[in-house]
Specification:
Blueprint: H1 7-15, H2 23-34, E1 40-41, E2 52-54, E3 59-64, H3 66-69, H4 74-77, H5 84-107, E4 111-116, H6 123-136
Length: about 140
């Protein structure tokens, strides 16, 4: 099935998809703030431009949307019916890019934590996980 929008309209729709300061990202930042963590946002000098960086802990946090990054949950496994090949290739490219960023950060001595959008359904469990990660460093 072909795309329901022409190329210009699809470009306009995709341009409105936020990459920074998304709701899941803000929720993770609130959790970290409650835990007393100090962090920086979107460090462009690090591979993959992590969403949240804690230099003192050498910890980089990526907050991924399940659909966009191909998580293995119900939302991430969903593939649109329209333009199926495009979306499958798009998510595959995102996953490849993510993996390269994680490997590059690890090579520089950073610990990488990935928080998936679906994990925010149980903020208590996520807060516990992040607290353990912070205590480990």
């Amino acid at each position: 099935m072909t795309d329901v929008y022409d190329k210009e309209k699809r470009s306009a729709v995709m341009a409105r998809v936020k990459s920074k300061d998304t709701s899941p990202e803000k929720a993770v930042r609130r959790i970290l703030t409650r835990l007393g963590a100090r962090y920086r946002l979107h460090r462009k000098d690090l591979p993959g431009n992590p969403d949240i960086v804690m230099p003192g802990h050498k910890l980089a946090v990526f907050v991924h949307g399940c659909f966009w990054h191909g998580h293995d949950c119900a939302r991430g496994a969903r593939v649109p019916k329209a333009n199926r090949d495009y979306w499958m290739a798009k998510v595959a490219r995102n996953r490849t890019r993510d993996e390269k960023a994680v490997q590059a950060l690890a090579a520089e001595g950073w610990t990488v934590e990935t928080v998936w959008e679906c994990e925010l359904k149980d903020e208590g469990r996520l807060a516990e996980r992040l607290a353990q990660r912070l205590a480990a460093r």
